[in-house]
Amino acid sequence: QLQLQESGPGLVKPSETLSLTCTVSGGSISGSSPYWGWIRQPPGKGLEWIASIHYSASTYQNPSLQSRVTISVDTSRNQFSLKLSSVTAADTAVYYCARPRGIIDAFDMWGQGTMVTVSS
Amino acid sequence: QSVLTQPPSVSAAPGQKVTISCSGSSPNIGNSYVSWFQQLPGKAPKLLIYENTKRPSGIPDRFSGSKSGTSATLGITGLQTGDEADYYCATWDSSLIAVVFGGGTNLTVL
């Protein structure tokens, strides 16, 4: 049974870089063709796609966040990671990693989500 | 402001049917498959519908999806109190080169 688990600090200071890792278990990150994704949800608000990465390291990023986002993959550890730089309070959200059923959307497997608060 | 437009809320009585609309444009819904997600309070989203009309294994046939032009619709029949949740549509936008989500619709089963 495929499982995804987010990990990383729950508190980040303004202007610093948020770093999260998604560990995939029960299957290989390079064993299929989808683009593994990061999605976030600010408290009380809707879902926002951040970025997606293929095991080949091909990426897509939300244009509104692109200048601050770095997404990477480590196939040897079966992990993919997200870095978001110059964070502000507006980046406070639950961050999810997910795998799409199709190529890049229709996410059918989700991590439990991790709350990240940006505050000094 | 979401690229995909959903009504903020809908409501219906137990046992009744409800539909949730998702309006987009040519670069997104008009040219890509639509998926639908259910998010129960405090939980991760769950895929209900993919490729406009298909249900993943385990999703009851009370949930259905359709698409026409640049709009998509999620239908839920035989409403149950357990269906109270937020529902989101999503698709690929070939102009933005991005996955886009609707703003979400909160379903209340009265």
Explained architecture:
The complex is a heterodimer of chains A (120) and B (110). Chain A has 120 residues and is mostly beta strands. Helix content of chain A is 0%, strand content 49%. Chain A is built from no helices and eleven strands. In chain A, the strands form two sheets. In chain A, strands 2, 4, 5, 6, 9, 10 and 11 form a seven-stranded mixed beta sheet that branches. In chain A, strands 1-3-8-7 form a four-stranded antiparallel beta sheet, with no helix packed on it. Chain B is mainly β and 110 residues long. Chain B has strands at residues 9-12, 18-23, 34-39, 46-49, 63-68, 71-76, 85-93, 98-101, 105-109. In chain B, the strands form two sheets. In chain B, strands 1, 3, 4, 7, 8 and 9 form a six-stranded mixed beta sheet that branches. In chain B, strands 2-6-5 form a three-stranded antiparallel beta sheet, with no helix packed on it. In chain B, a hairpin with a 2-residue loop joins β5 (63-68) and β6. Chain B is globular, with a radius of gyration of 13 Å. The A-B interface holds A 37, 39, 46-49, 52, 60-63, 96, 101-102, 104-108, 110-113 and B 2, 32-33, 35, 37, 39, 44-47, 50-51, 56, 86, 88, 90-92, 96-104.
Element layout with pairings:
The complex is a heterodimer of chains A (about 120) and B (about 110).
Chain A: E1 3-7, E2 11-12, E3 18-25, E4 36-41, E5 48-53, E6 59-61, E7 69-74, E8 79-84, E9 93-100, E10 107-110, E11 114-118
Parallel strand pairs in A: 2-11
Antiparallel strand pairs in A: 1-3, 3-8, 4-5, 4-9, 5-6, 7-8, 9-10, 9-11
Chain B: E1 9-12, E2 18-23, E3 34-39, E4 46-49, E5 63-68, E6 71-76, E7 85-93, E8 98-101, E9 105-109
Parallel strand pairs in B: 1-9
Antiparallel strand pairs in B: 2-6, 3-4, 3-7, 5-6, 7-8, 7-9
